[in-house]
């Protein structure tokens, strides 16, 4: 998946986010599933969109599509989303970016 390897999908509550492993934070606001599907197509990353079904199956099971992670907490554990690059919890990320 050229150009998309440093990103994964996470799900917090009812919202999906594209998560950057480079910046350790969301690079999108919270999206519904329909918005996420549109995002994949609108960003012209059809190669990544072609495996969206498999990735979403893993997201629904574990909360993340990051290879090797077993939960959304595993993926976001080193985030820098808070003030002064501090880590936020999943609930705090949801409140900050999910609206």
Summarize model confidence as the mean pLDDT: 87
Low-pLDDT ranges: none
Radius of gyration: 12 Å
Shape: globular
Number of domains: 1
Q: Total number of β-strand segments?
A: 3
Question: Could you describe the largest sheet, including whether it forms a barrel?
Answer: 3 strands, antiparallel
What's the topology here?
Blueprint lengths: L6 E6 L2 E6 L4 E2 L6 H10 L3 H5 L1 H11 L9 H5 L13 H8 L2
Antiparallel strand pairs: 1-2, 2-3
Task: Write a structural description.
With 99 residues, this protein is of the alpha+beta class. The chain has one domain. It has five helices and three strands; from the N terminus they run βββααααα. The mean pLDDT is 87. It is globular, with a radius of gyration of 12 Å. It has a three-stranded antiparallel β-sheet. The chain starts with 6 loop residues before the first strand and ends with a helix.
Key words describing this protein structure:
5 helices, alpha+beta, 99 residues
Quick synopsis:
With 99 residues, the chain is α+β, with helices and mostly antiparallel strands. The protein has helices spanning 33-42, 46-50, 52-62, 72-76, 90-97; strands spanning 7-12, 15-20, 25-26.
């Amino acid at each position: 998946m050229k150009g998309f390897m440093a990103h994964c999908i996470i799900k917090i509550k009812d919202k999906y986010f594209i998560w950057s492993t480079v910046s350790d934070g969301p690079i999108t606001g919270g999206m519904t599933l329909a918005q996420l599907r549109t995002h994949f197509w609108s960003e012209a990353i059809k190669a990544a969109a072609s495996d969206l079904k498999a990735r979403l199956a893993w997201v629904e099971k574990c909360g993340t599509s990051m290879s090797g992670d077993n939960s959304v907490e595993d993926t976001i554990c080193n985030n820098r989303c808070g003030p002064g690059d501090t880590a936020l919890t999943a609930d705090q990320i949801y409140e900050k970016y999910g609206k």
